[in-house]
Amino acid sequence: MEATLPNCPKCDSEYTYEDGVSYICPMCNYEWTANGEETANADNTVIKDVNGVELNDGDTVTVVKDLKVKGSSNAIKQGTKVKGIKLVDPEDGHDIDCKIPGFGQIGLKSSVVKKINK
């Protein structure tokens, strides 16, 4: 008999999958454990932008200064709008994963972005 996985508590999607001790929803990128806690907030780390405003998954931010990109002759220009960020465990100081048009999937540091209020 095959065990059924729970629907996503955030968007009620049935397409959840198990990753170690966590459940993940590929539809809204929500992660939680079997006891209902969000895995992203398990370590209580708060990631803040350049102005000290708390960032969350899915926020829209702008880049506050020109950024050189390794392996590219182009730079990410100041004022570039980045939609739908995903907060991750810091790797070399990069704690945001996002897609930037013309560059693709890239990691950014929270210290070089500013949250846009909706």
UniProtKB/TrEMBL annotation:
Parts of the chain that traverse the membrane: none
Pfam families reported for this sequence: YjdM, Zn_Ribbon_YjdM
Domain named Protein YjdM N-terminal: residues: 4-33
Residues of the Protein YjdM C-terminal domain: 47-115
InterPro entries in the cross-refs: YjdM (IPR004624), YjdM_C (IPR013988), YjdM_N (IPR013987)
Entry similarity comment: Belongs to the YjdM family.
Entry protein name: Alkylphosphonate utilization protein
Lineage: Bacteria, Bacillati, Bacillota, Bacilli, Bacillales
